[in-house]
Design a protein that fits this description.
Length: 202
């Protein structure tokens, strides 16, 4: 069974959605670990309630990103993690993690990449006046919000939408799309060919 580590720094609604999908038998996986870099993050309490192990690794306790990532990798190895799922992890990954888990790190972004990269994807699309935005799940590479795209889904920005109502729609879609992408990965259905991810449909 695939052992997943979710990396998160904040609220953890995607963490909870993945946990739900596993519990409902929609994902043949185990939530082996939560890696968190922020001691105040609500996701930690969620993990505790769901009895998921938590590795709290604070960057300030290490003199370099390399040492920080080596410590994270030790936690991943101790827990036999096969797949890393970033869900609101507010930190770029460096060479250590990327080389040790190449092709096994996913991220979710709340916009249709390559549009509206960065930490404010929903707000940026809304203030730009986009009529369509959405959600992207992609493999992670060394650049921010950049690796090969696995799945995307669109959301219409309606006349009556406010930033808050758009956020609600996007998050709802995220909670559906992320488990779906993870299921494809776990089932061995994804093949990376350059920038393109081929999805094999049975
Ligand atoms: C999500 O909108 C995700 O797309 C982005 O960070 C947010 C995390 O939300 N990368 P949550 O902590 O899962 O609720």
């Amino acid at each position: 069974m695939t052992k997943i580590a979710v990396f998160a720094s904040g609220k953890g609604s995607n963490f909870a959605a993945i946990a739900r999908a596993i519990k409902k038998g929609r994902l043949d996986a185990e939530l082996a670990l939560l890696v968190c870099d922020n001691p105040g993050a609500p996701v930690i309490q969620r993990a505790k309630r769901l009895k998921v192990k938590v590795a709290l690794v604070k960057k300030e306790n290490f003199s370099s990103r390399e040492d920080f990532e080596k410590a994270v990798i030790r936690h991943l190895q101790e827990n036999g993690v096969d797949l890393i799922v970033l869900a609101g992890f507010m930190r770029m990954l460096g060479a250590e993690l990327l080389s040790n888990y190449q092709g096994r790190i996913l991220n979710i972004h709340p916009a249709l990449l390559p549009a509206f990269k960065g930490s404010e994807g929903i707000k940026d699309a809304f203030t730009y006046g986009a009529k369509i935005t959405g959600v992207t799940v992609h493999f992670v590479d060394e650049k921010m919000d950049h690796g090969p795209i696995i799945l995307q889904a669109a959301v219409k920005v309606e006349e009556k939408d406010t930033l808050e109502s758009l956020e609600t729609k996007i998050h709802k879609l995220e909670h559906k799309l992320y488990p779906e992408a993870i299921r494809l990965f776990i089932g061995g259905k994804l093949r990376i060919e350059g920038r393109r991810v081929r999805i094999s449909i049975p």
